[in-house]
Amino acid sequence: MLTLFRSSVILFFTIALSSNLSAQDYKSAAGIRLGTYVAASFKTFISEKGAIEAIAGISREGGNSIITFGGFYQIHNSFAADTPTLKWYFGGGTFVALGNENIKTNIALTGIIGLEYTFESTPLNLFIDGIPYLSLNNEFNFDAEASLGVRFVF
After folding, report:
1. Do 35 and 42 meet the contact criterion of CB atoms below 8 Å apart?
2. pTM above threshold 0.85
3. What is the CATH number of domain 2-153?
4. Taking the domains of the chain in order of start, what are their residue ranges?
């Protein structure tokens, strides 16, 4: 999994630094999110700056598979005037991780902050973000994770 993560980071920066870009707005995007878990991602804008993202994925913890579902509300802003396709975003949401006999089911409140880059020459969007969360199990637990991914925009 670590090798896949490193390869994804290298691919992200290689594409981001080598492409000819200009502004491209998109309404929706679907793709994959890699990090602590591997997940499908669907994102759609509901206003000029506001988007919702739904995720469904799987992670491994101590040899056990955990199914994860979640959603975020995100507010997007331009990063710099000379790179209009580079956006930063922040927001919040929730997720549920369905455990098994070895791992408890987890419900958490989340935050999210990240960067995304959309290409004009191809209908792709690359992103990297951090997700702090507060688990709402019997004992409250604060943790964070990071992910990166790629989406097809439409």
Report:
1. no
2. no
3. 2.40.160.20
4. 2-153
